[in-house]
Write a structure and sequence with these properties.
There is one protein chain. The protein has 373 residues and is an alpha/beta fold. It is 20% helix and 20% strand. Strand 8 (115-118), helix 4 and strand 9 form a beta-alpha-beta unit. It starts with 13 loop residues before the first strand and ends in a 17-residue tail after the last strand. The relative contact order is 0.19. It binds delta-amino valeric acid (DAV). The site of delta-amino valeric acid has 10 residues, from loops.
């Protein structure tokens, strides 16, 4: 099959994708950015180092099953090359006791049209994660003369990038107040974003302002993609706002599911309402808690992978979410995936687009409301 990098949104027919790998994944030691993410009562507090081999094998089995399902639907699947994540890293500005892993390519790689952009990342332990994808990038570069291989400015991630003591002894109420007030652990010292904070809808890129993406990161994206319109959205109600894909998930043109605990504020809905987009509450997750040693919330239930406007892969135990998808007119492909969750998220997290059919549409000709930078 010829290699052509091209993807403008989250829902056009998927033809080529990267599926992550769990090998060598570590729980990184605490650092300013992860302090903010790991809940005080989490079983991950105080733990770090390589994850148990048995859990790695189970996660890899489910990731392989995802790859096989995609291939059975005619999607070309590539895999990253894991490096030994259990190495300390040092830069002139910081040291970190280990790296993280390469199960969630979505966090690192942002595909916009014929470009794949590696995000700066805001966790020190994730500074070198892009290296796992270099062999694939080189391969696309050689195979597709139009492919733009890009890297956002490498951040320094010094003490200047984080607010000191931001989450020391903080109650959940206080967390919620701060996140609603757009007061996050990262400062505006330098542009920061994770790729998974960006929802691609043709000409419009909606970025979640949260723990991993700051205003400067969005400003950088706007200048980098001058033909796009970059928007800032935020979701009060989420004490750990990291990545938009368990909060606000488009299924097809005109339809988005929104986490009902993290509703998009009214003043930011205007652009969707005015352009006839429907925002519906996502179904309630089946589980009361995430699997052990997992960073993410139970709302990975809605972290689905859309194959085309009528087909979606959903985690096999999430009956409510599958039922809702069915009612919304989607064919559901169920796939067990909870063993993979602790390694970096759900089905959307575990993948990154290389090619979807379709072109850059203008879904929001009426640019109203206050989401623009
Ligand atoms: O709800 O914990 C998970 C997103 C993972 N990329 C959540 C967000």
């Amino acid at each position: 099959m010829t290699i052509k990098v091209s993807s403008w949104n989250e829902f056009d027919p998927l033809k080529h994708v990267i599926v992550g790998r769990a090998d060598h994944t570590c729980i990184p030691p605490s650092e300013p950015a992860t302090e903010a993410k790991v809940p005080d009562d989490s079983d991950m507090r105080g733990m770090w180092g390589p994850r148990p081999l048995e859990t790695v094998e189970k996660a890899n089995a489910q990731l392989d099953a995802l790859a096989a399902l995609l291939e059975s639907r005619g999607v070309l699947v590539d895999r990253p090359t894991p490096i030994q994540w259990n190495q300390a890293v040092h830069t002139p500005d910081f040291s970190a006791g280990s790296m993280f892993g390469c199960m969630p390519p979505r966090d690192v790689l942002l595909t916009v049209g014929n470009e794949i952009l590696s995000a700066p990342m805001s966790f020190r332990c994730r500074y070198f994660e892009y290296l796992a994808y270099q062999p694939l990038m080189q391969h696309y570069f050689d195979a597709d003369p139009d492919f733009r291989w890009e890297q956002a400015p490498r951040p320094r991630l010094s003490e200047d990038s984080y607010k000191p003591g931001y989450f020391d002894e903080i109650t959940t109420d206080e967390r919620l107040k701060r996140t609603a007030n757009l007061d996050f652990v990262t400062t505006e010292y330098e542009p920061l974003f994770d790729a998974a904070d960006i929802m691609r809808l043709g000409k419009d890129l909606f970025c979640q302002h949260g723990l991993t993406t700051n205003r400067r990161g969005m400003q950088w994206l706007q200048r980098h993609f001058p033909d796009h319109r970059v928007h800032s959205v935020n979701f009060p109600g989420d004490p750990y706002p990291i990545h938009i894909d368990a909060t606000f998930v488009p299924l097809r043109p005109g339809l988005i599911i929104n986490n009902p605990n993290r509703p998009l504020p009214d003043d930011q809905r205007q652009i969707f309402n005015s352009n006839d987009w429907e925002i519906v509450d996502a179904a309630t997750p089946v589980h009361n808690s995430p699997p052990p040693l997992c960073y993410s919330s139970v709302w990975l239930s809605m972290n689905c992978l859309v194959l085309d406007h009528k087909t979606v892969i959903v985690e096999a135990s999430e009956k409510n979410q599958m039922e809702q998808m069915d009612k919304l007119g989607m064919e559901v492909l169920p796939l067990p995936f909870r063993d993979a969750y602790p390694f970096g998220g759900g089905l959307h997290c575990a993948t990154a687009d290389v090619r979807r059919e379709g072109s850059c549409e203008d879904y929001f000709p009426k640019q109203v409301g206050n989401t623009r930078l």
